[in-house]
Amino acid sequence: MAETVLELKDLSTHFFTDSGEIPAVDKVNLQIHKGEVVGVVGESGCGKSVTSLSIMRLIPSPPGKIVGGEINFKGEDLTKASEKRMKKIRGKEISMIFQEPMTSLNPLFTIGNQMSEAFRLHQKISKKEALQRSIDMLKQVGIPRAESIVHEYPHQLSGGMRQRVMIAMAMSGDPEILIADEPTTALDVTIQAQILDLMRKLNKEKNTAILLITHDLGVVAEICDRVVVMYSGQVVEEGSTREILKDPKHPYTQGLIKSLPKLREKQQRLYSIPGTVPKPKLGRVGCRFAKRCEFAFDRCFQADPELISLGNNRKSRCFLYEEKESGVESDVNSTIRS
Amino acid sequence: MFAYVMRRLLMLIPVLFGMTLITFSIVHLIPGNPAKVILGEGAPAQAIADLEERMGLNEPLYVQYGNYIMGLLQGDLGTSLKSKGEIAQEIWPHLAATMELTFFAMLFAVIIGVNAGIISAWKQNSWFDFLAMVFALIGVSMPVFWLALMEQWIFAQELGWLPAYGRQDSRDPIAEITGFYVLDSLIHLDFERTITILKHLVLPSIALGTIPMAIIARMTRSSMLEVMKSDYIRTVRAKGGGQFLVIYKHALKNATIPVLTVIGLQTGVLLGGAILTETIFSWPGIGRYVYEAISFRDYPVIQSGILVIAFMFVIINLIVDILYKKIDPRIKY
Predict the structure, then answer these.
(1) Which residues pair with A66 in a beta bridge?
(2) SS3 string of B236-254?
(3) CB-CB neighbors (< 8 A) of B327 in chain A
(4) Rounded to an integer, what distance in angstroms lies between the CA atom of residue A11 and that of residue A27?
């Protein structure tokens, strides 16, 4: 396996609100290897966006704060990096694009101005050269008539085009890692496919690792090499995309996959996991998913399950697999298949 | 842009027409006979009737209005009943005095207000933010006349640093060219006089500018804080931009529009003449000019004064609208 470029070790980010301390990200472990596309999947509020913002050290503070763990980026712990150092890393080593292309660009400055800024923040080049490079970059992400687009304002562009601009801007520093936080959620399905194609192309051509945050398993299946499933601030399952989609281990992942609409089967109603995601809370004991889990037994409510290694780089946070020998797993699988 | 400005100027015509109608009606619907005022209470009826005829007051209202408009179109604002002088000539020095004072008051208000607002937003919840906002609250709620008197007492009376009254040293008046004394003294290359005139401007400008300053500071702060939460600010940070770039380039421009609105409105208000400030500082501005005309029922002056003030307001609004468009490319009219 290629070298690890980013490794989260027990990363915890808490929010300090009037109603108490909220562990939005709770001891998350995650590795990204060079040139790899890793998907982080989960429902809204599961901590996936907070994880990505923590890596960028862009958690709004107050109320948010990284309270523990490490973010190792090429041997450097970013949780200890100064703001000055982070400014050099953001946009150059690790870039980020966001969910809302409509509001992610400043409406009062031209595309060229904002793109040139990205170049000039990290390289000593003239405005003219920065603009030229912006045009080249826009062409690389498939923007037609880039020469005139640079003089236009964001509102003159469609959502898909703006997301391309965002990607071009994020790629301007030729980063090691691109974090994409729900990059296609706000877009039409056809545009989604184009944006995913573009990201895959950049990943292949420039060997940029991508951390893709999404709630859409379809998107994951499309481009990710590996998937991390998050639930209520914790990683609950990890493995290669193929295996997770084919053979999900954690009951939550199983539920997620079951709730996907299938073309070949006639379904009266789409499956949905009963209940809602519990809000992360300090001092909670037991599996976060236990209340919604159809396989939950007493122990699930009494102790916190660990992320258990299942071999073949697969991990699952579920007691069912700890007691593999007792034959519970076969029960689970037969239940799911039925 | 040019087409837009031209269109806006054309749109001014109906607005101005409406303004003349309103000022004309207000003055003519108010009870009180100007001829009686001029001649005094005990004047014989015949004399009053003669004067009314000479002034055209016995004509039907629409004829009077027609004459008024015809005069306006030729730049004739009428004749003052009190001084018998041409209003168009009389009013300019007053207007210039008010414009000059307004300019410096707003300069003070904008420079201090906007910067205080920015720093408050930047260092939200810091001691600076706290102090600035307390001062802003005091500034908004402080009576202007009290502040003016305190200034005079401290800086003119006790410390003797600054003059308390007037636009200039009255023993040595300037030869007027434009009516803006700072500009005039610069044209004369008489820089010593410029200093004197600027010194005269300090206290009234601060007195007049304090309320706008406080309003601008609060508006800038809240507008900045609002903008700082936007997605595009996060984008700037994500590409490695620092606090300075975020605040002074990306946030400030976006926060400007509401602040600009407030600046425009406040400028309009100040141009209407601040009677209290002008009276306390013996400033020969438009506010006092109109106020004196009202006490004397000098209705052509009142009418012209109100018209000129309204006109200034409209012009300021036009400038603000043009600036909006300059700042925000999304604005379409």
Answers:
(1) A13
(2) HHHCCCCHHHHHHHHHHHH
(3) 108
(4) 5
Cα atoms in the Cβ-side hemisphere of radius 13 Å centred on B301: 28
Cβ of B232 within 8 Å of Cβ of A107? The answer is yes
* Cα gap A168→B225, rounded to integer Å: 28
| Mean predicted confidence (pLDDT) in A213-230 | 87
* Residue in A with minimal Cα distance to B257: A108
Asked whether residue A334 carries a pLDDT value surpassing 70, the answer given is no
Q: Which residues contact B148 (CB under 8 A, 6 or more apart)?
A: B203, B204, B207, B276, B277, B280, B281
B235 Cα to chain A: minimum distance (Å): 6
- pLDDT surpassing 60 at residue A330: no
Is residue A332 pLDDT above 70, yes or no?
no
Contact B232 A95 (CB under 8 A): no
What residues have CB less than 8 Å from A137, skipping those under 6 apart? A115, A168, A169, A171, A172
Contact B273, B287 (CB under 8 A): yes
Residue-wise pLDDT for A257-273, tens only, equals: 888 777 777 767 777 88
What residues of B are in the A interface, CB distance below 8 Å?
230-232, 234-242, 245, 249-250, 253-254, 327-330
Tokens of A166: 């965002």
CA end-to-end span of chain A, whole Å?
37
Amino acid occupying residue A177: I
Q: How is residue A306 annotated by DSSP?
A: P
CA distance B247 to chain A (A): 13
**Nearest to B140, CA basis, from B215, B208, B216:** B215
Asked if A122 and A91 count as a contact pair (C-beta separation under 8 A), the reply is yes
Q: Which H or E run contains A128?
A: helix A127-140
Task: Calculate how close chain B gets to A175, using CA atoms only, in Å.
Answer: 11
Q: Which residues of chain B have pLDDT under 70?
A: 32, 273, 333
**Range scoring the smallest mean pLDDT among A20-34, A49-63, A128-142, B34-48:** B34-48
Mean pLDDT throughout A106-117?
A: 91
The question of ipTM being above 0.90 is answered as no
Please list, residue by residue across B93-111, b when 16 or more beta carbons sit within 10 angstroms of its beta carbon and e when fewer do.
bbbbbbbbbbbbbbebbbe
Look up the pTM and report it: 0.80
CA distance A135 to A149: 8
Between CA B39 and CA B32 the distance in angstroms is: 13
Q: What is residue A337's predicted lDDT score, i.e. its pLDDT?
A: 45
For residue A13, the cross-strand partners are: A25, A66
Residue whose structure tokens are 């400028």: B267
CB–CB of A103 and B245 under 8 A? no
Q: Pick A75 or A40 by higher pLDDT.
A: A40
